[in-house]
């Protein structure tokens, strides 16, 4: 019999293998191994200072690594150059602070990168941007400036702006932590919807309701290490390590 033409290996969109990183003497990522399948939603939790943000930032090379390998859709992330810019464009990122361009309209915020980086035609970019803005519920704000929007609206624009690049994976680093409480859900709802549509997502968040609803897997980090990976049920009901038990007792 002939071997199959297509291997039925699960396809990993993000892979970290033996990733180490220091900030000076601080060993901030210790032998991180993580594989994220296409369509998977990971929620990354852990105490403050455990390296969650740093790990996310290495995935689009906002931070370099000391050793190990990071692959996006099978391609090794290089240290620099044109290839890096291309791979970076595959990874959308949404931060705690909304980081919109303050002197550009909402529409321009969303179309800027597709036009500049993807070389997209302006009319096409604007059509897609309006679609995305209506998906996140802020189409009526398109001609306004960021400062005229609420925090929740700005964060939804930030999500639309990341999606406009057609990323293969979306990283969220505490996207609701800076929001007034009444605006948290409008942002989480957009993320839940995105997860349902099959987007591959890595989300650092303390929103455990979201984690239970949307996560396929919870990754628990402490002291620069991944200590546990489990389903939401498994992690919340039966945390294995003392660190995770301690963490959960403080937040639940
Ligand atoms: P988390 O997101 O889990 O709170 P971080 O990844 O932000 O953790 O930080 C992990 C550790 O690395 C912390 O001790 C933090 O102070 C330190 N750190 C983060 N960024 C830098 C930096 N640019 N320079 C030096 N230390 C840093
Ligand atoms: Mg952080």
How many separate helices?
9
Structural class: alpha/beta
Low-confidence segments: none
CATH hierarchy class name: Alpha Beta
C-alpha termini separation: 55 Å
Strand order of the largest sheet: 6-7-8-3-9-10
Largest sheet properties: 6 strands, mixed
Please, what is the CATH homologous superfamily?
P-loop containing nucleotide triphosphate hydrolases
Order of helices and strands: EEEHEEHEHHHEHEHEEHH
* Mean pLDDT level: 94
Which word captures the global form?
Answer: globular
The CATH topology label is Rossmann fold
The CATH architecture can be named as 3-Layer(aba) Sandwich
Q: What portion of residues belong to β-strands?
A: 25-35%
As a percent range, the share of helical residues equals: 25-40%
Radius of gyration: 19 Å
Counted beta strands: 10
The number of domains:
1
Ligands, deduplicated? adenosine-5'-diphosphate, magnesium ion
Family: Belongs to the ABC transporter superfamily.
GO molecular function: ATP binding; ATP hydrolysis activity; ATPase-coupled polar amino acid-transporter activity
EC number: 7.4.2.1
Organism: Bifidobacterium magnum
